[in-house]
C-alpha cells in the first residue's frame, strides 16, 4: 500500500520466476542445477531456514540434496562430506548452514568448499575476487540488497551509503558492492563513536548489526533509504529487524520491512547463484 515500503517478497518472487525459466532452458540442454545444503545440529531456526531453502530449490525445478549431520559431528567428518560434494558433478552449489557447533572451525570448513561451488560467496577466493572487482560468487544477502535497490529505482552514484556492521557475510561485501556503484561508503561497527552523527549523514543506510530496534529515528536523515538486514527473534516469537520500523517509517523515503524485506531476497539470490554455477559448469564441459 505505502509506496515507501520496498516489497522484498514481491521482488524475490520475480527473481525466482526468472530463475525458474532459465532452469527449464538449462534442463532442456541436459543440465539440471543442483544445490547441496549441509545442516549440522538441531537448532530449530537453522532447520527452518534449511527447510525453506530446500522447498525453494525444488519449486524452481532444481536438484536438492540436504545433508543433516549430528550436533557432535567432527570437523573431519564434515570436511569429508564437503570433499564428496566438491567431486559430485550433479552438485553445483554447496552451502554449509552457519553457525556451526563449537568443535568445528568455520573458516576451515568454508575454505574446503570448491570456490566454483561456493554459492554463498564466503570462500576467501570469492571474497578476494569481490574486493578486486573480478567475477566470482557474491554473498547472497548483500547481492539481494543491490537487486532490491536497483529494482526500486534507487540511484547510488555520488550518494553517501553508510553500512552499520562489518561482518564477512554482510557488512564487508555490502560496502564493496556499494563502492562498485560509485557510492561514497562509510562502514560503522560496535566501536564506532557517536554512531547517530554518522548514520544521520546517510542517503542509503544499511543496518546489519543483529540488535533488535537498534536504529531509531535519531539515526536517520529525512528522505534516506533504509535497508534492514536484522532478523532477530523477539521474546514475542516474532521476527524483528535492527530498525525501529514505526519510528523510522515517517522519516525514510524508502524502507525494507522485516519480515518480507531482505530475507526473501537472500534465498532468491542463492537460487540465482546456483543457476549461474550450473551454467558455468555445464557450458564449459558440454
Ligand atoms: N551458509 C549460510 N548461508 C546463509 O545464507 C545463511 C546461513 N548460513 N545461516 C543463517 C542465515 C540466515 N539466512 C536467512 C535467509 C532467509 C531468511 C528469510 O527468508 N526470512 C523471512 C522470514 C522467515 C521466517 O519467518 O522465519 C523474511 O525475512 O521475510 C532469513 C534468514 C540465511 N543465512
TrEMBL record:
Quaternary organization: Homodimer.
Organism, scientific name: Edaphobacillus lindanitolerans
Cellular component aspect of the GO annotation: cytosol
Gene (name only): folD
Annotated catalysed reactions: (6R)-5,10-methenyltetrahydrofolate + H2O = (6R)-10-formyltetrahydrofolate + H(+); (6R)-5,10-methylene-5,6,7,8-tetrahydrofolate + NADP(+) = (6R)-5,10-methenyltetrahydrofolate + NADPH
Biological processes per GO annotation: L-histidine biosynthetic process; methionine biosynthetic process; purine nucleotide biosynthetic process; tetrahydrofolate interconversion
Protein name (record): Bifunctional protein FolD
EC number assigned by the record: 1.5.1.5, 3.5.4.9
Family label: Belongs to the tetrahydrofolate dehydrogenase/cyclohydrolase family.
Residues covered by the Tetrahydrofolate dehydrogenase/cyclohydrolase NAD(P)-binding domain: 139-280
CDD domains, alphabetized: NAD_bind_m-THF_DH_Cyclohyd
Amino acid at each position: 500500500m505505502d509506496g515507501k515500503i520496498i516489497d522484498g517478497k514481491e521482488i524475490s518472487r520475480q527473481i525466482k520466476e526468472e530463475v525458474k525459466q532459465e532452469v527449464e532452458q538449462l534442463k532442456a540442454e541436459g543440465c539440471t542445477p543442483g544445490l547441496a545444503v549441509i545442516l549440522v545440529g538441531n537448532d530449530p531456526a537453522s532447520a527452518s531456514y534449511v527447510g525453506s531453502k530446500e522447498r525453494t530449490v525444488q519449486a524452481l525445478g532444481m536438484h536438492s540434496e540436504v545433508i543433516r549431520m549430528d550436533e557432535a559431528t567432527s570437523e573431519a567428518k564434515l570436511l569429508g562430506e564437503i570433499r564428496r560434494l566438491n567431486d559430485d558433478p550433479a552438485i553445483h552449489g554447496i552451502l554449509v548452514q552457519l553457525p556451526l557447533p563449537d568443535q568445528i572451525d568455520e573458516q576451515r570448513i568454508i575454505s574446503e568448499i570448491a570456490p566454483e561451488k561456493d554459492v554463498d560467496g564466503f570462500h576467501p577466493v570469492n571474497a578476494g575476487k569481490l574486493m578486486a572487482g573480478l567475477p566470482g560468487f557474491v554473498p547472497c544477502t548483500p547481492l539481494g540488497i543491490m537487486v532490491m535497490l536497483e529494482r526500486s529505482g534507487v540511484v547510488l552514484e555520488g550518494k553517501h551509503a553508510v553500512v552499520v556492521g562489518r561482518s564477512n557475510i554482510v557488512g564487508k561485501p555490502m560496502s564493496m558492492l556499494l563502492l562498485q556503484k560509485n557510492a561514497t561508503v562509510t562502514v560503522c561497527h560496535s566501536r564506532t563513536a557517536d554512531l547517530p552523527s554518522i548514520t544521520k549523514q546517510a542517503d542509503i543506510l544499511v543496518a546489519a548489526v543483529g540488535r533488535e530496534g537498534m536504529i531509531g529515528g535519531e539515526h536517520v536523515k529525512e528522505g534516506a533509504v533504509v535497508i534492514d538486514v536484522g532478523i532477530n527473534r523477539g521474546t514475542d516469537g516474532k521476527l524483528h529487524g535492527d530498525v525501529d520500523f514505526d519510528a523510522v517509517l515517517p522519516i525514510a523515503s524508502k524502507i525494507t520491512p522485516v519480515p518480507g524485506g531482505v530475507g526473501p531476497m537472500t534465498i532468491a539470490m542463492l537460487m540465482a547463484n546456483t543457476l549461474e554455477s550450473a551454467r558455468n559448469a555445464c557450458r564449459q564441459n558440454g
